[in-house]
Design brief:
By secondary structure, the protein is an alpha/beta fold. It contains 13 helices and ten strands. The protein is 36% helix and 15% strand. Strand 6 (211-216), helix 11 (222-225) and strand 7 form a beta-alpha-beta unit. Helix 1 (12-28) packs across helix 13 and helix 7 (154-164) runs parallel beside helix 12. The longest helix is centred in the N-terminal third of the chain and has 17 residues, at 12-28.
């Protein structure tokens, strides 16, 4: 059996995309590989102020990841080195038969696992073509929802009862490193009040709900940012609740209506949601400030993004 090594990077949402892509590839090959999650790049990026500090977050999945021998780790570190990639492209690397195969996002999908000789393959990139995962939604959702109860706090279960027992709207208000990290802000863009107001108007026209749960790290600006909400109870969930990123994602996935930020964390809470109708997911029609790419699925409702200017 071969091994697919995921070069993980980014936060939980990004890591889930990278895992789902490896799962998709492995499924296409008849599950002939073990999937190995490597946090080497995460550790390296955390030492660089240009990147938001992250950690490995997939260990809580009820999934049997493979492992690498010391020798295999050495081979992966060679192929995965940015310095090596800068001077030698993936095809040239591949000509050195003793090295692992390198699969990047610019390769043709049908060609990804064609070689039968490679026992070790490194997969690098973000792999955020959302439509690629529609066909494996049930399988991936089951895995993502499989978090063991030992990782879930009493506060999580308290909020879960509130969300599951009501017709509610969950809003993900992502700011954090979109403000503090210039690189992230310039690429992603910071969605402003006008976007959330438009999304809220669309949500209340589509469905009635009695409660609104706002997931954020910026409790102090909520009263001004969401003063357009009237007539329903609003509960803010933030760092004071001491929930893990997994707990926040799973709670949002239990809502009956959902407003997304331009965050892969938001995206996954919508993608695995088995409770709401897909038409009750509202997100930015333009996901990134730079470029027109969108992670919105066809059945979701796109809202025109209004990006804030931050001095």
């Amino acid at each position: 059996m071969g091994k697919l090594v995921i070069e993980l990077q980014g936060g939980l949402g990004n890591q889930l995309f990278q895992f789902a892509n490896a799962f998709r590839m492995n499924r296409a090959s008849g599950f002939q590989h073990e999937i190995v999650a490597s946090d080497h790049l995460i550790k390296q990026q955390s030492k660089n102020s240009r990147f938001t500090s992250r950690c490995f977050e997939l260990q809580q999945l009820n999934y049997s990841f493979g492992s690498l021998s010391h020798y295999e780790k050495g081979l992966i570190s060679v192929v995965g080195s940015p310095k090596v990639r800068k001077f030698i492209n993936s095809r040239e690397l591949q000509s050195l038969g003793f090295l692992p195969r390198l699969i990047s996002e610019d390769q043709i999908t049908s060609d990804l696992l064609e070689s039968k000789n490679n026992k070790l393959t490194l997969i690098t990139g973000f792999w955020q073509n959302a439509k690629d995962y529609i066909s494996i939604r049930d399988e991936i959702s089951t895995i993502v929802e499989s978090i063991d109860s030992i990782f879930l706090s009493p506060r999580y279960y308290e909020l879960l009862r509130k969300i599951e027992n009501t017709s509610c709207l969950c809003i993900h208000f992502r700011r954090s490193d979109y403000i503090s990290n210039i690189r992230a802000r310039n690429f992603h863009g910071l969605l402003g009040k006008e976007y959330f107001s438009s999304a809220y108007s669309a949500a209340i026209q589509a469905r009635e709900f009695s409660n609104v749960f706002v997931f954020t790290e910026d409790r102090e600006i909520i009263s001004d940012a969401f003063d357009f909400i009237n007539g329903v109870k609003v509960e803010v969930i933030d760092k004071e609740d001491k929930l893990s990123s997994w707990e926040n994602l799973l709670l949002m996935s239990k809502s009956t209506s959902l407003i997304l930020s331009n965050s892969t964390f938001s995206w996954w809470s919508a993608f695995i949601n088995r409770r709401l109708e897909m038409a009750n997911i509202f997100g930015p029609s333009q996901w990134f400030r730079q470029g027109n790419d969108s992670l919105m699925l066809p059945s979701w409702t796109g809202i025109t993004p209004f990006f804030e200017e931050i001095n």
